[in-house]
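Entry 14. Ran structure prediction on the chain below.
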Amino acid sequence: MHRRVAIVTDSTACLPPQLAEKLGITVAQIQVRIGDWVDDEARVPLPRLLDAMRDQQDVATSAPDPGAFFWTYADAVSAGAEAIVSLHVSTGLSQTAEAARQAAGQVQVPVHVVDTRTCGMSLGYAVVAAATTAAAGGDVQRVIAAAQQSCRRSSELIYVDTLEYLRRGGRIGAAAALLGSALSVKPLLTMADGRIAPLDKVLGADRALRRIVDIAVRRAGDGEVDIAVEHFSAPERAQSVLDQLRAKLPKVRRFLVTTVSSAIGAHVGPGAVGVTVSPV
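Output, structure tokens:
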């Protein structure tokens, strides 16, 4: 039996491929450009991207082409979908949702494009909520409501070694106030009103990561939560943060560790770690 409502997202959701496949989620790929070379981020070798960033080569990201969304939607229709819910990274960070809207009007079934005003696993867990609701037979309104509720409840906490990569990509917005800090002062960021915003400044990387853990524990509260730890070329840091969270949060329904998408990594830089807190 086919699923009545198909779920589409983009690769900034940072969903592990096996989870997306299990839940029947289709992931459109953000484009990454290194110099004159452009490809889907899933096909960008991580070592090549890291080398380019450290060598200060021209690295940029862009939304999928509307044509890519059209064929993604067309495939869902061919598989029997009666409606499509397409959930995407904040328009404050990317034009991905706009590209999806351009394609939506050319599809035979209703396509509901949602700007989630977030990114990373805050988007990822919203997509999981939507897919789970769709698999249970929920209609479009219930699917969208499940995703929006997840977004409203989720927090995205971000540690970066430096704001330089965000500055290069024009993504720091209000976080620019943190520029000029001493090199030993590490910025903590969050998502606010669909954009990256400053959260705190902490002396030293270890203290900054402990601070993120403390904030995550406070935001999780006493209820059941889903937790994700995301990183870009920082697996040991991510594991340390995960271990601390496991010790302090007894009511976690799902723990997930994942590497952020190359498109996000290109902006946060090597060494970055994020924590998503998504109350159930």
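Residues 44 and 262 are 7 Å apart (CA to CA). Will compare against last week's run tomorrow.
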